[in-house]
Write a structure and sequence with these properties.
By secondary structure, the chain is mainly beta. Helix content is about 15%, strand content about 40%. Strand 23 and strand 24 (about 275-280) form a beta hairpin. The chain has two domains: about 1-45; about 50-295, Cupredoxins -  blue copper proteins (Immunoglobulin-like, Sandwich), CATH 2.60.40. It is built from two helices and 25 strands.
Length: about 300
């Protein structure tokens, strides 16, 4: 017991208890503040900044396949819903094919994304949206040279539209073809994790998955597959800035307005993996690279 001046008696335990509460409160506030500062620094570090790039460098190159391409994947169309309608493309003698390693002129490897890694600031980042149509039971990536491969970003919207309708096998009534776009985030040494998974039964139906794209921060690759039709597949590489390119049908690509510096250039294919080269860019320089993937 503590006796204050004037004779007032105060419990020592109660006094220490109040002091403990104050100390704990101060510690909690300090900890929360530290976490907020750390989170803010982390967010600031990862955010790309647009600046003027004067006398920037340029990169051109080509991606090729050495040897034969792996065999196409085959699916018995009759094992999946709406087989008559879905056999309208990429199907022969009841077999739907998925050519996921496509080769063009001069053994140019198609469906490759080339990314320059490590650039924090530079030319404007104009990617507004990634859109996919489901057309005749096929994912069609729009707006680029590839219908099978595209890019995604944690801050950019991702939309899917169902364009399919066909007679109901039982009633004959024309109805929408049910598709179920299911996306997986894929990271090295980790099991694929679902990002979104939703049925789309109506023709003309469009869904936005912008909130789900935040999950791609934890995975560099996203696979899209229809749970109704296994042969419906598409792939996407995550990007955080505009220094990327999708190769053309001949495997060629180019990237401009690159800030001077030493960076890693990555060529990624969804089936054959990725290759990396380190390139040093000086102001106004024109550099070139070649990537060669092995086939069978």
């Amino acid at each position: 017991m503590i006796i204050k001046s004037g004779g007032e008696k105060v419990s020592m335990g109660r006094s220490i208890g109040k002091l403990g509460v104050v100390v704990i409160a101060i510690c909690v506030i300090s900890l929360v503040g530290a976490v907020d500062v750390f989170a803010a620094k982390k967010r600031g570090k990862s955010k790309y900044k647009t600046v003027d790039v004067s006398n920037g460098a340029a990169l051109s190159g080509v991606v090729t396949l050495k040897g034969k391409a792996p065999a196409v994947k085959k699916f018995e169309i009759g094992k999946f819903p709406q087989p008559e309608f879905c056999s309208g493309v990429d199907t022969k003698d009841g077999v739907r094919v998925l050519n996921d390693v496509a080769v063009g002129k001069g053994n140019g490897l198609q469906d490759v994304v080339v990314v320059i890694k490590g650039i924090k600031e530079g030319k404007p980042y104009d990617l507004k949206k990634t859109h996919v149509d489901m057309d005749v039971c096929k994912f069609v990536v729009t707006g680029g040279p590839s219908q099978f491969v595209g890019v995604v970003s944690p801050t950019v919207n991702f939309t899917v539209t169902n364009k399919d309708e066909a007679p109901d096998p039982k009633t004959g009534k024309v109805i929408g073809v049910l598709h179920n776009p299911h996306s997986f985030g894929i990271a090295p040494k980790k099991n694929p994790s679902t990002m979104f998974n939703l049925g789309m039964p109506e023709k003309g139906q469009t869904l936005s998955f912008k909130k789900d794209m935040k999950k791609i921060r934890r995975a560099p690759v996203m696979k899209l597959q229809c749970d109704q039709h296994e042969y419906m597949q598409a792939w996407f590489r995550s990007v955080r800035h505009p220094y990327y390119a999708l190769v053309g049908t001949d495997g060629a690509f180019s990237i401009d307005q690159i800030p001077p510096g030493k960076y890693k250039v990555i060529a990624w294919h969804p089936i054959l993996g990725e290759q990396t080269q380190e390139v040093t860019f000086s102001a106004g320089a024109k550099e070139s690279v070649k990537f060669e993937f092995a086939g069978k």
